[in-house]
Design brief:
Elements: H1 3-24, H2 28-49, H3 57-69, H4 77-94, H5 102-124
Helix pairs in contact: 1-2, 1-5, 2-3, 2-4, 2-5, 3-4, 4-5
Length: 128
């Protein structure tokens, strides 16, 4: 695994732990945002392994979809979860009348964990 990809996976894991901590503190909006970033960093790790670099979130989303979801290298549900988590992050960051509940954020954390685990397994089997 390339060093840059490894660093993104480590960052994803730290960000997921932050989401879990924010959930315990009942800061659901912030926890939802951290879930998105955990998934984004996992997607970036996979893309960086292929020397693909993007600065815009939408570009990462599209490239991940093309390289991993559409090809079936990883379950397309992870791409959907990434996009849904992005929508949550935008709502949480920019809307003033938004609220997240514990159950929805717990589900998003579980999705982020599964996405990160799938990315790690992808590297572990050497499928890159």
């Amino acid at each position: 695994m390339k060093d840059e990809a490894r660093k993104f996976l480590e960052k994803a894991a730290r960000t997921l732990r932050a989401a879990e901590s924010l959930l315990r503190e009942r800061d659901y909006e912030s926890a939802a945002g951290r879930c998105y970033y955990a998934m984004l960093h996992a997607a970036q790790a996979l893309l960086r392994e292929r020397d693909l670099r993007y600065r815009k979130h939408a570009s990462v989303h599209a490239a991940y979809g093309e390289a991993f979801a559409k090809t079936g290298l990883l379950d397309p549900k992870y791409h959907r979860w990434l996009l849904d988590a992005f929508a949550d992050r935008l709502r949480g960051d920019y809307d003033v009348d938004v609220s997240f509940d514990k159950e929805s954020v717990t589900k998003r954390i579980d999705q982020a964990r599964e996405f990160l685990d799938a990315a790690q397994r992808f590297f572990d089997v050497g499928a890159s």
